[in-house]
Amino acid sequence: MEIDEYRTYCLSKAQTTESFPFDEDVLVFKVAGKMYALASLKKWEAGEHRINLKCNPDEAIQLREKYPDEVFPGYHMDKKHWNTVVVNGPNLSLQQIQNFIDQSYDLVVSKLPKKKREEIQLK
User: Fold this and answer.
1) Distance of alpha carbon 6 from its chain centroid, rounded?
2) Are 14 and 120 in contact (CB under 8 A)?
3) Residue spans of alpha helices (H) in the chain
4) What is the CATH topology of the domain spanning 3-122?
5) Where does this protein have coiled-coil stretches (predicted)?
6) CB distance 37 to 28 below 8 Å
7) Are 31 and 109 within 8 A, CB to CB?
8) What is the pTM assigned to this prediction?
9) In the beta sheet, which residues pair with residue 52?
10) How far apart are CA 49 and CA 32, in angstroms?
11) Relative to the CA of 53, which of 22, 35, 41, 123 has its CA 20 to 30 Å away?
């Protein structure tokens, strides 16, 4: 997955916005103002194709155990709720990475107020 594919995939999700809230390096994707994915553009350009994604804490541990070379506790994030995923690793397919993005997005949407969730699901 290249950065433009990652960006396009995230932006295809309902009510997703992109921004640089921290600095000009960290590209953040949000739904309803809540982060679900981010990446360092400088690191990406340096060959470190990594993204941070929100994850259910129990599943986060399972993924880290299943993919020890591609999934790590979230870099500069709450290690319980975030994973860093190496998107160009040999053990993860594009479909798996997209699934991780979907799960992150869905997890954030599931925590929104009911009215906001319904709004997103209608679009």
Assistant:
1) 9
2) yes
3) 3-11, 41-45, 57-66, 94-110, 114-122
4) Aspartate Aminotransferase, domain 1 (3.90.1150)
5) none
6) yes
7) yes
8) 0.92
9) 38, 84
10) 26
11) 123
